[in-house]
C-alpha cells in the first residue's frame, strides 16, 4: 500500500483509498485494546512491562516516539494525532520504563543510557520494526536516547529524527547560562543562580521564577494558562525519581551528581549514516546553531528550523514542524532523500 499527501486532483489520498485500512485493527495482535500493548522488557533486575499504543497501518513508515524527561510521558505527542493519520504514517506512542503508564520500579541502577537503549531495541523487536520501516523520533532526552540507539543499532533503522536536543550537555549548559539566562531581568537571573548555587531547589521561589520568566518563553511559547491539556497532563505524570537521578533539579544544566552529567557525542555524530533529520527552534532551550551543525556532521543529514518554536516546537511552531517532519519521512520512504 502506498500513501501520498494528495492525489493529482488535490484530494486527500488517505480518505480516498487509505483511511479504512489505515485504521483497521482487524487480525492485529493489539486489536483487543485498540493498539495498546504492554511489552515485557528484560532487565538486569528482572522483567517489567512498558506501555505502547500503535496508531495506523503502514508497512514502510512506522515511527516510534521517544519522549523527553527522563521520566516524562508519551502525552507530549498527542498533537501527532492531528497530522500523521491524514498522511498515512503509522506511529507508536511509548512510555519508557519508569514513566507513568509503564511499570515504575524504584531500583536506580536501571536508569542508565545503555539499559534504555536495550529497552528501545526490545520494544522495536516486539513491534516488528526493522530497517525497511523503522523511523525513530526522539525529542529532548528522547533525542539523546535516539542518538545513542543509532550509534549502536543503526542497521535496524530506516530513518532517525533528533528533535530539540544538542549532542553535548556541557554545551547545553553553556548556552543556558550564557545566552538564555541573561535574557531574563538581571535581578531574576541572579536570584535563580543563587538558588542553584545553594542547592535550594525545594525553594518554591525557584519554580515561581522559572514559570514566569523561562518556561513560557523557551519550553512552550504560550502563556501558561494556554498550555495544551496533554502537556499539562504529562507534567503532572512526570516521575521525579527518574528525572532527578539522571538530569538533576537545574533548568540551566545538569546538576552535579546526576548520571547524565558530562554526556557528549559530538565526536561520534560522523558515524551515523542513516538518513537523519535534526530539528531546532529559534527560542529553544537548546542552541539551534548547534543543532544545525549536528545535521552537517552526520553522513546523511537534514536540518529543520522552526523559527517561532521553543523546546516543544510541535506545538508553538506546529505547521513548520509537521510539514518538515512529514516531508523527511516521505522523502526517505520514496528514496528521494
Automatic annotation (TrEMBL):
Extent of Low complexity compositional bias: 7-21
Domain AB hydrolase-1 intervals: 63-317
Segments traversing the membrane: none
Keyword set, alphabetical order: Hydrolase
Hydrolase among keywords: yes
One Pfam family in the UniProt entry: Abhydrolase_1
Example GO molecular function: hydrolase activity
Family annotation (InterPro entries): AB_hydrolase_1 (IPR000073), AB_hydrolase_fold (IPR029058), AB_hydrolase_sf (IPR050266), Peptidase_S33 (IPR002410), Pro_imino_pep (IPR005945)
Lineage: superkingdom: Bacteria
Region feature (Disordered): 1-24
Similarity annotation: Belongs to the peptidase S33 family.
Record-given protein name: Proline iminopeptidase-family hydrolase
Amino acid at each position: 500500500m502506498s500513501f501520498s499527501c494528495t492525489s493529482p486532483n488535490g484530494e486527500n489520498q488517505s480518505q480516498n483509498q487509505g483511511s479504512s485500512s489505515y485504521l483497521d485493527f482487524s487480525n492485529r495482535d493489539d486489536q483487543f485494546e485498540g493498539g495498546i500493548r504492554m511489552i515485557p522488557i528484560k532487565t538486569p533486575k528482572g522483567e517489567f512491562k512498558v506501555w505502547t499504543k500503535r496508531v495506523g497501518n503502514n508497512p514502510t513508515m512506522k515511527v516510534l516516539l521517544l519522549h523527553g524527561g527522563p521520566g516524562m510521558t508519551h502525552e507530549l505527542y498527542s498533537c501527532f494525532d492531528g497530522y500523521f493519520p491524514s498522511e498515512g504514517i503509522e506511529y507508536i506512542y511509548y512510555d519508557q520504563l519508569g514513566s507513568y503508564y509503564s511499570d515504575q520500579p524504584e531500583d536506580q541502577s536501571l536508569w542508565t543510557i545503555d539499559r534504555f537503549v536495550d529497552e528501545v531495541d526490545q520494544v522495536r523487536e516486539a513491534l516488528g520494526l526493522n530497517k525497511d520501516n523503522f523511523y525513530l523520533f526522539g525529542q529532548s532526552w528522547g533525542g539523546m536516547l535516539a542518538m545513542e540507539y543509532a550509534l549502536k543499532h543503526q542497521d535496524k533503522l530506516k530513518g532517525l529524527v533528533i528533535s530539540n536536543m544538542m549532542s553535548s550537555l556541557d554545551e547545553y549548559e553553556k548556552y543556558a547560562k550564557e545566552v538564555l539566562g541573561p535574557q531574563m531581568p538581571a535581578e531574576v537571573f541572579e536570584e535563580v543562580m543563587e538558588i542553584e548555587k545553594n542547592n535550594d531547589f525545594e525553594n518554591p521561589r525557584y519554580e515561581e521564577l522559572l514559570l514566569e520568566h523561562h518556561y513560557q518563553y523557551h519550553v512552550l511559547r504560550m502563556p501558561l494558562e494556554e498550555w495544551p491539556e496533554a502537556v499539562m497532563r504529562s507534567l503532572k505524570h512526570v516521575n521525579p525519581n527518574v528525572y532527578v537521578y539522571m538530569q538533576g533539579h537545574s533548568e540551566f544544566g545538569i546538576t552535579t551528581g546526576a548520571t547524565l552529567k558530562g554526556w557528549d557525542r559530538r565526536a561520534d555524530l560522523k558515524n551515523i549514516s542513516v538518513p537523519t533529520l535534526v530539528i531546532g527552534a529559534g527560542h529553544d532551550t537548546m542552541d539551534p546553531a548547534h543543532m544545525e551543525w549536528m545535521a552537517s556532521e552526520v553522513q546523511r543529514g537534514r536540518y529543520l528550523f522552526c523559527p517561532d518554536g521553543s523546546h516543544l516546537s510541535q506545538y508553538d511552531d506546529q505547521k513548520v514542524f509537521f510539514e518538515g517532519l512529514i516531508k523527511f519521512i516521505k522523502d526517505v520512504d520514496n528514496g528521494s532523500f
